[in-house]
Amino acid sequence: MTTPAVSSRDLPHPLRDEVRLEGVLHALADPMRLRIVRELATASGELSCSHFELPVTKSTTTHHFRVLRESGVIRQVYRGTAKMNGLRRDDLEALFPGLLDALLEAATRQAARLAD
Amino acid sequence: MTTPAVSSRDLPHPLRDEVRLEGVLHALADPMRLRIVRELATASGELSCSHFELPVTKSTTTHHFRVLRESGVIRQVYRGTAKMNGLRRDDLEALFPGLLDALLEAATRQAARLAD
Fold it and tell me: Which of A23, A99, A106 sits opposite B96 (nearest CB)?
């Protein structure tokens, strides 16, 4: 009897019930990660990591995506050689109704205010 | 000519325009600080630091209040010998309409869910 093969490329994600508000807020308490989330929120589908041109090193970018994934904010899957990213809107909305939109709205307002 | 006396007990607070979303989220990304904010939100007025019975040392409690003050989430003032704390609702609402309520609602939901 064999156990089902688990690809080494499967990335660990918290289940919906394991997502914690403190973790979500920590994940979003960083300008780069907030920027990633704002961009994912306006995308119609998944975006690859390489889509994002952040003013940080590749390894720092990878770190930011991992924090977002491990907190339950985004889902990351491999499609061929590309790591694709999408917001876990349904999970976040089920756990914390209205919160993601309030956070995105706050981020948008702040970006507009600081750009003046 | 003399400069106005500034009491050494005056505590530094960010001005409204200096408050940053990332700082607010960092301040709330901690279970103890989230608990303090939830309690301040249900209070009718200011609460003294000693009102809070947190399962941490006094110096850790002081640290948590300082993080909340320096991020712009709370205002701390001395009244006699007591350090009193109040949420900066007006400032937060002006900067990020609806965000504080969404965060408090999310925290309440999570507390109820984890207590089940």
Answer: A106
Nearest to B29 among A22, A99, A109 (CB): A22
B74 Cα to chain A: minimum distance (Å): 17
* Closest CA relative to residue A63, chosen from A89, A33, A41, A31: A33
Residues B78, B65, B113, A89, CA torsion sign:
positive
Q: Could you tell me the pTM of the whole model?
A: 0.90
Largest CA distance in chain A: 65
Determine, for residues B26 and A29 on separate chains, whether the beta-carbon distance falls below 8 Å.
yes
Average pLDDT over residues A33-51: 93
Which fold, B16-110? Arc Repressor Mutant, subunit A (1.10.10)
Per-residue model confidence as pLDDT tens digits over B59-91: 999 999 999 999 999 999 998 888 999 999 999
Gap from A58 CA to chain B (nearest CA, Å): 22
